[in-house]
Amino acid sequence: MRPSQYNLIENRGERTLVMNAKTGAILSLDKQHAERMCRMVSGSEWEPDELCEALLQGGMLLEDDRDEKEEMKAIGRLVRFSDRSLGMTIAPTLECNFCCPYCYEKGQRKTTMTLEVED
């Protein structure tokens, strides 16, 4: 077992919050369980129990053969090529106030959406 690279741990007095940014799971641990989690993550203690199961279920602990980077790449590909949603960018104006000297848009007619079209 090993910890997820997407874990965020925040100590809040008597409680420790463990959040996994990949799964969105959050655990609030008391001091005793937080110390035990640290021992589990370091590999010095391993005993399957309720805490271990919660950490596995939340994605905070992983089996050694899981590759999170490859999983994230696969999710990205699935989302990118899925036809289940449509993303759009609406550009109400082409005005740009940066005036970059290297801009390839020279000669571009700057236009602004009319109020009628905007409505």
Labels describing this entry:
119 residues, alpha+beta, three-stranded antiparallel sheet, 5 strands
Task: Summarize this structure briefly.
With 119 residues, this protein is α+β, with helices and mostly antiparallel strands.
> Sheet bearing the most strands, described?
3 strands, antiparallel
Strand content: 15-25%
| Integer-rounded radius of gyration | 24 Å
**First CA to last CA: what distance?**
56 Å
Spans of at least 5 consecutive residues whose pLDDT stays below 50 are none
Q: What is the percent of helical residues?
A: 25-40%
Content-based structural category = alpha+beta
Strand order of the largest sheet: 2-3-4
The overall pLDDT average reads 83
> Element order, helices and strands?
EEEEHHEHH
Q: Please count the helical segments.
A: 4
Beta strand count: 5
What is the global morphology? Answer: elongated
Structure description:
The chain has four helices and five strands. With 119 residues, it is an alpha+beta fold. The chain has a domain at 2-75. A three-stranded antiparallel β-sheet has the order 2-3-4. Strands 1-5 form a two-stranded antiparallel ribbon. A hairpin with a 2-residue loop joins β2 (7-12) and β3 (15-20).
Write the layout of secondary structure elements.
Elements: E1 2-3, E2 7-12, E3 15-20, E4 26-30, H1 31-42, H2 50-57, E5 61-62, H3 68-80, H4 115-118
Antiparallel strand pairs: 1-5, 2-3, 3-4
